[in-house]
Design goal:
Length: about 200
């Protein structure tokens, strides 16, 4: 059966854009324009994935995410304002599985949706706790420690470290890393080098 996506945003243009591209890519779509409607729709329709804006009327996206996490393990992609790193961190800490910044590329959104559905519905899922030697990565608490000392990472650095640790001993291509971190592969995107360098320096 075609997978169902719930899109939650109070901006009609964003909702239409996401819905149109999702439907073109063979997803079924239901929508909500505020937090209360999002909770009602999620409980009734039981979507396979939720795209959830942080800034919503009635109940904001953070609280909606907290409530949903107590009731379900449905994959959640948070929509955040461009460069608002604190929103990205907060979203991941309260249970969101991924985030994408607005304005976003429809192609990147579709790639994020597909990648997250593969990770959460496939046979192999990333464990919530990864330990490699003295390094400990806790996906649920969004924390990293090395020799029991906390390491502060940006959202992308955390996702990169988690990805590499969960594939320890395997070789990942640049395109595979970009697909997971940024939602769309691009052989010309060199920002991943910066993330790897910074993560290594912090560790």
């Amino acid at each position: 059966m075609t997978q169902l996506i719930l899109v939650v945003d109070d901006e009609p243009k964003i909702v239409r854009l996401a819905r149109d591209y999702l439907e073109k890519n063979n997803f079924r779509v239901v929508t909500a324009g505020d937090g209360q409607s999002a909770l009602i729709t999620a409980r009734k329709e039981k979507p396979d994935l939720i795209i959830l804006d942080l800034m919503l009327p009635n109940i904001d996206g953070r609280e909606v995410c907290r409530i949903l996490r107590k009731e379900s393990d449905v994959p959640i992609i948070m929509l955040t304002a461009l460069s608002e790193e604190i929103d990205q961190v907060t979203g991941l800490e309260i249970g969101a599985d991924d985030y994408i910044t607005k304005p976003f590329s429809p192609r990147a959104l579709i790639a994020r949706v597909r990648a997250l559905l593969r990770r959460t519905t496939g046979d192999v899922k990333t464990p919530s706790m990864i330990r490699i030697g003295n390094l400990e990565i806790d996906a649920e608490r969004y924390s990293v420690t090395y020799q029991n000392n906390p390491i502060k990472l940006t959202p992308n650095e955390f996702k990169l470290l988690q990805l590499l640790a969960s594939h320890a001993g395997q070789t990942l291509t640049r395109e595979q890393i970009l697909e997971d971190i940024h939602g769309v592969a691009s052989s010309f995107d060199r920002s991943i080098d910066s993330h790897i360098k910074k993560s290594a320096q912090k560790a």
